[in-house]
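Deliverable D5.2: sample structural annotation.
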Amino acid sequence: MATQPKADNQRAGKLGLTFWYQLVVLLFLTIASLVLASSVLIPLSFAILLFVLLTATSDRIHRIVILGHSVPKWMAHLGALCLILFGLLIILSILSSQAGLVSEAFPKYEERLSGILAKLVALVGNENYAAAQKALSQINLSGFAGSIIGSAGAFLSAFFLVLLYVPFMLVERLPMQTKIDLAISDPTLASKVRNVLHSTSASIQRYVGIKTFVSALTGFGSFLVMWAVGLDFAETWAVLAFLLNFIPTVGSIIGVALPSLVALVQFEEFSPFLMVLLGCGAVQFSVGNILEPTLLGKSLNLSPLMVILALTFWTAIWGIPGALMSVPITVCIMIILTHIPATRPIAILMSGDGRVGPKG
């Protein structure tokens, strides 16, 4: 009789080891798939975020009432598509027209920066001056700029895949409810699935839409500051500020530091550097710490630790595109987990204060 509980304990232990073994194998295969299929998954991820932004803009236009009637859905879709394509064309035209000029200007900036840093280092003593000069001579800003432009060119070359995915996603949006009803025979379960999908889609649309809006506002505000100072390539640095705003904490710092560094090496005076630093810093602080939390509220906030982990993970997996999409992807995952009762505790642990919105 005493051997039966012992056998049950051994069987339970084997099942527990099997579960953890399968979990480790699943995580390994998932990470390997993300790395090996990055050339397909990165454009697909951008296409999904673009599709969410398009649907959010379309729904917002559809709710506009003109002469007692809301805007027709087809007109809302067309208006949203034109608006987003116009914004993308502006970004692509700025990057394509100024990328070569920025690359050509970097050797001049590199020489000026080396001279400024050498003067600063010389203040600490003559003994360290030679070592500092040797270290500064090894700085290759033009090569660094070339690698960034090459990465941007590779992204632009894959951008046609994004434009190829989005129309098919739009076509697939309408018959999805009918497919759910046909796939799930239980009407109650089908209704619950539709409600979860609807609330999840609405939350993701809200986050992506607001994040894109505040990022565009950050880029425009930074452009006004840089244009007023007369900074070279202000349009390019504004586009980078818009894109970098999707990267948590680090993106805002780079978005301020990069144009400030350009102002330091472009002008002989020190005042333009301070104007760009303080002006762009004020824009980043006011939008990121006042406006964005007000618009998003407390329901979509991530834990600071989760933000850093997401940034580290997706950057290691997909590089710069992963850094840009780290928080949007993680927030989307948290929102989906929020609306599934079994995974809601995980979403609570991922959040900043435990408040993750209504239950699904």
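Annotation notes: Strands lie at 65-66, 69-70. The longest strand covers residues 65-66.
The annotation will be released with the project's public dataset once the embargo ends.
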